[in-house]
Amino acid sequence: MNLESKEELRNLALLRNVCLEQARQAYLAGNDALSKELTLKGQLYNMQIKSAQDKAKEAASQYRNLLLGEAQGFVQENLDRPIDLRGLHASEAIHVLNYELSNIKRNIRSIGRRLEITILVGPGVGNLTRGGARTPPRLSGAVEQYLFEHGFRCTQTQPGVLSVMIY
After folding, report:
1. Do residues 144 and 162 lie in contact, with contact meaning Cβ atoms separated by under 8 Å?
2. What are phi and psi of 85, to 5 degrees?
3. Are 54 and 14 in contact (CB under 8 A)?
4. pLDDT tens digits, 91-103
5. Cα-flanking dihedrals φ and ψ of residue 20, to 5°?
6. Domain residues of the chain, as ranges?
7. Is the pLDDT higher at 25 or at 161?
8. Which residue range or ranges hold the Smr domain (predicted)?
9. How would DSSP label each residue in 29-50?
10. 0.90 exceeded by the pTM?
11. CATH fold of 81-166
12. Of the candidates 167, 164, 138, which has an alpha carbon nearest to the alpha carbon of residue 83?
């Protein structure tokens, strides 16, 4: 509700209260006709207040829906990108993966749907590990183990690329 609307509502409420107080005074003085007229005037101000409040509620609702739509668009844009863990050590990758998956799960709950996430872990040949190509890659194994331990089902769509469905 903007400042002008609040000011308008405050003024209408003051006018209504004045009318109703004057109506009460007129009634106590025995002037029933004036009392009835001022009461009707107070009720008219009350209807105007209700109308202004309804307009303000509608405007606030539209604004919230607009913000929610923008937020969902932002969330959707951020959910469509893959989680890139290439080049990270296993411990660093697990930390990044934990952070990203927590955010994604929270955002998916807010929009109420499921989503397939792509996780890039690298080529998977182990060339950068100690011992060269003879050593199995640690990153993909650590990531797959983390996903399994935390209840995520993953599939390897191609070497170095994991796909995870999040609900």
Report:
1. yes
2. -110, 5
3. no
4. 888 988 998 888 8
5. -70, -35
6. 3-75, 81-166
7. 25
8. 83-167
9. HT-HHHHHHHHHHHHHHHHHHH
10. no
11. Ribosomal Protein S8; Chain: A, domain 1 (3.30.1370)
12. 164
